[in-house]
């Protein structure tokens, strides 16, 4: 049984209460439960994490690399939140690791403020899912399993 690491960046712990018109009413716990159910259909497990701290996300990516090298992990799904648009550190961490990384955004960032149109993550991600709501996480799981 292999694992998929799902990482969530700043403010995603507020899902369900923060801007529900933009992000919907599902909580991060709902997203986690859906990810676990989707992965379980394929005999995979989910390592689900959230941090408001950039360095913690970098550490998690490094940990994912070690798990990948040991054959315990097949890939990473990351919703970097606002760090998408600011973090060279997360860009470099993804660029420096071996497992495929799928970038997910709940809202369509390209239909929002112009500063959200640029991603430091997209150029180093294996793929990007934008604007599918929380279903983007399920689509990302399916895409990792198809590789």
UniProtKB/TrEMBL annotation:
Chain coiled-coil ranges: none
Class of this enzyme: lyase
CDD domains for this protein: DHQase_II
Any one Gene Ontology molecular-function term assigned to this protein's record: 3-dehydroquinate dehydratase activity
Taxonomy, superkingdom: Bacteria
EC number: 4.2.1.10
Annotated residues for binding of substrate: 79, 85, 92, 106-107, 116
Keywords associated with the record: Amino-acid biosynthesis, Aromatic amino acid biosynthesis, Lyase
Site location (Transition state stabilizer): 18
Reaction equation(s) it catalyzes: 3-dehydroquinate = 3-dehydroshikimate + H2O
Pathway(s) of this molecule: Metabolic intermediate biosynthesis; chorismate biosynthesis; chorismate from D-erythrose 4-phosphate and phosphoenolpyruvate: step 3/7
Active site: 23 (proton acceptor), 105 (proton donor)
Listed InterPro entries: DHquinase_II (IPR001874), DHquinase_II_CS (IPR018509), DHquinase_II_sf (IPR036441)
Any matching Pfam family: DHquinase_II
Biological process, per Gene Ontology: amino acid biosynthetic process; aromatic amino acid family biosynthetic process; chorismate biosynthetic process; quinate catabolic process
Function, as annotated: Catalyzes a trans-dehydration via an enolate intermediate.
HAMAP family the record matches: AroQ
Family from the record: Belongs to the type-II 3-dehydroquinase family.
Assembly with partners or alone: Homododecamer.
Protein name, per record: 3-dehydroquinate dehydratase
Protein species of origin: Photobacterium sanctipauli
